[in-house]
Structure formats: C-alpha cells, structure tokens
Amino acid sequence: MRVVTNKFPERFLWGGATAANQFEGGWNKGGKGPSTADMMTGGTHTTARRITPVLEEETYYPSHEAVDFYGHYKEDIKLLGEMGFKVFRMSINWSRIFPKGYELEPNEEGLKFYDDVFDELRKYNIEPLVTISHYETPYGLTEKYNGWASREVIDCYVRYCETIFKRYKDKVKYWLTFNEINCLTMALGAFMSGGILVNGKENSELSMNVKDNPQLRFQALHHQFIASAKAVKLGHQINSDFKIGCMIAYMTTYPNTCNPDDILLAQQKDQISNMLCGDVQVRGYYPKYATRFFEEKGIRIIMKQGDEEILKEGCVDFYSFSYYMSAVASADPNLEQVGGNLLGGVKNPYLKASDWGWQIDPKGLRYTLNHIYDRYQIPLMVVENGLGAVDVVEADGSINDQYRIDYLRDHILQMEEAVKDGVELIGYTMWGCIDLVSAGTGEMKKRYGFIYVDKDNEGNGTLERAKKKSFYWYKKVIETNGEDLE
Q1: What's the whole-model pTM score?
Q2: What is the 3-state secondary structure (H, E, C) of the chain?
Q3: Which are the catalytic amino acids?
C-alpha cells in the first residue's frame, strides 16, 4: 500500500548539476590529459560538432576552457551556497586523475584539485553527488584500446574508481557510475559515451547520421555494465555508507495513436532505450526481451565466465535519470518529425517546444517517475531537468528568465504529484545550474543556468558571473522545501 504525503521529504536534496567536460575547463592544467570531449569542436543548433583525431590549430574546442570552474570554483560554490543548495552534482574528469587512462599511478595534482572542491562544498554544507564518468573518457584509452569497445578498459576504470573511492571516502557519499549509460544504445553515443572511433580513426560529425556499428556499441555497453557492477561492489567494501546509483537518459515515448503498431513501437523504444540499462543495473541481469532484440540486430554479446555473477553482485542503490521532454512514436513514417534530447519523434500537437525544438512535457515527468518506481521500487533522483534558452542581459544588467522559472515550476509541481502518488523521490538537481557548454551542440548560446556566464559561442567573454531572476526564485524554493513556487 502506498503512503500518501503532501510535500517533499524533510531532507529532500535540492540542487543543481554540471559535468566537467562542459563546465570545468583547465583541460591541460594540473597534469590533466585530453579526454574525448577535448577532441570535439564547437557547433551550433544547425551545425553539428566534429570529432577530430588530432587537435587542429585555430579550431575552437569548447571544453578546453568551458566556463573555467577550474579557476572559479570558490566563487561558484559560494553562489550555490547562497542559493542554499543541499547537493551539487558534478563529475570528476577521469583524465585529470589518470591523464591517459591506463597509468598505474594517479596524478596527485588532479586528486588535490577535487579535494579542494569537496572541502569548499563542505564549507556550505553542500553534499557532492559525483558522476564518475560523464562523457569524459581519457582520449589515451581511445587511442590505445578504441575506448569501451575493448574489455581492457574495465580494469582501467576500476583502478580509477578505487583511487577516488579511497581518496574521497570521507568527503563523498553519493556516486553515479556512468552518465546516461543508455546513450550507447544509440549511434550518437559511440564516441561521446564510449570513446569509440567506429572507423578506427575519423574526422566526422557528432550527429544522428554517423556511421554505426551496433555490435561495437552494445559490446561496449556490456563492458560498462561490468565496470559499473564492479565499482558498486568495490565502493561498498571501501565505505559501506556509500550510495551508488545508475544514471539513465530517460526518453519517455508515447504511442501516437491506439493503433497496436504504434503501441508496440513505443513499448519497444522504452525497453531498449530506457529499460535495458535499468534492468541490468538495478536487477542485475539482462532482460528476456533483449535476447530477441540482439538476435534480430545480429548482435552477439561476448561474456566472460563470471560476468553474470558480477552483474548480480553489483546492483545499484538508487536510480537517477535525466528528463527534459517526451517523444511520440508512430509506425507511419510520413508524419512530421521533431528533434530532441538524443532521440526525436513525431510532433506532439498538445505540447509547446523550447527554442531548440524540444517538446516541453511536465506531466510526462510524473508519468515517468511512476513508471520507473513501479518497476524497480528503489529510491529515485531526477539529476537533470532544465530549459535551454537564449537569455538576454538587459541594459541594467538584469536577466529576466521567467520562462525558465515557469518550466521548472511546472516540473517541480509534477514531481510533488509523483511524491503524493507514493514515489520515493529523494533529490532533484536541475541541469546546468551555472551556464555551461551544451554537450550536443557545443554552444554557450543555449543557456540553462540560474547564474549567467559572460561567454559566447566563439569562446569570447570575461567569464564574469551574474545572477538571473531564477537564482532568487530557486533560493526560495529550497528555503521552503518546494512549498513556495511563486
């Protein structure tokens, strides 16, 4: 029987989320090596980012400076503290700890940087939520092993996990093993999520039209499943108080009509895009529907003896996910299509869209929370949700982002409805609490934050921080534990 409550839990974790490759900068400082993100050029809403096998002179790589959290972390964390953040989701740049990814000894200067960051968060009583791998595979692993396509990378990852678990065992409680691990179920994820060069070496676009190799992607995904399970078991051995979760890019998909073909298509998209990774990481085994999918796609997952036991022993403690929009599936290929976060679909006439064409669906978040919780019955966290928009700095310096407040309010209201439904929701970290580089397009123009950063798409700007209207609104939301949303 579900227990009905009318508000968020007393110790609800309100906060915001970032990723090192979009936020941190300092790409070659402090002994850091290049990551896959450091090999990706800038782009725009209409021009795809490129992946370059070597760095090109006079080419702009947004991650190299990003918004320079590396040099502004004290200022930035102070602003988060002023808002009253309970939690800050961030990632550790793997190549800052192991510059090539496969070294046997870590880079002490990199470890010290995160010590300083965690100490600064503690000053403001902000709990770090650390993503261990967030589209930041060391490029050395791509060059040596073709990234996660090779099983050798599992040991490199576990060595990295052991290093940071032991170093920060008294400073970090909440961990996520891989960001949006299900990105590898899509062609777009081969390089961004897996560090895989499909052609061995390439200078290609980061787009839905990249050359694909499903066998390579799903084998890499299996390697990440094993690595995640090993990390969970190891983390619990190092500190039994660790809470280690999965992170899924949840792509909620509705059938376009009650045509059974539409309904089955929507179900299949949910199974492969969303549930496959959740089932393996939460339940500890591959679901039966995956068997047919692999057979029909000509995919053969190569498992080593003991892999099934590793998956069973490394189930996550909680389930986290990103939610920005919903999509619509139809068996009719002639209907109008729209884009979105990783996955597009048929246009939904009942929804408005963002400046980037993502369909805005707050009620879909309530539906998704119930859908996930009914399946897994473990604590949930919404660790990415937000509105990418063009923000205008007025003559007086103010930034009136009421549209962002409206978006977040509507989604928070639906989270509250899900809590009333009985969902065990423990935290919310809206995406891009400080403006950062867009992962998909490499833009700065597409802004998410409560805090504005003076930088443009070409990398020009002072990096000065400024509070938006939404800064003060979210501060009030946290102070009242979600009760005052006006």
Answers
A1: 0.96
A2: CCCCCCCCCCCCEEEEECCHHHHCCCCCCCCCCCEHHHHECCCCCCCCEEECCCCCCCCCCHHHCCCCHHHHHHHHHHHHHHHCCCEEEEECCHHHHCCCCCCCCCCHHHHHHHHHHHHHHHHCCCEEEEECCCCCCEHHHHHHHCHHHCCHHHHHHHHHHHHHHHHCCCCCCEEECCCCHHHHHCCCHHHHCCCCCCCCCCCEEECCCCCCCHHHHHHHHHHHHHHHHHHHHHHHHHCCCCEEEEEEECCEEEECCCCHHHHHHHHHHHHHHHHHHHHHHHHCCCCHHHHHHHHHHCCCCCCCCCHHHHHHHCCCCEEEEECCCEEEECCCCCCCEECCCCCCEECCCCCEECCCCCEECHHHHHHHHHHHHHHHCCCEEEEECCCCECCCCCCCCCCCCHHHHHHHHHHHHHHHHHHHHCCCEEEEEEECCECCCCCCCCCCCCECCCEEECCCCCCCCCCCEEECHHHHHHHHHHHCCCCCCC
A3: 180, 384
The predicted structure's pLDDT at residue 201:
62
Task: Write the pLDDT tens digit of every residue in 257-283.
Answer: 999 999 999 999 999 999 999 999 999
Q: Catalogue all structural domains in the chain, each as residue range(s) with its CATH number.
A: 13-479 (3.20.20.80)
Tens digit of each residue's pLDDT (9 = 90 or more) over 374-413: 999 999 999 999 999 999 999 999 999 999 999 999 999 9
The full length of the chain comes to 486
Radius of gyration of the chain measured on its C-alpha atoms: 21
- From CA 140, how far away is CA 477, in angstroms rounded? 43
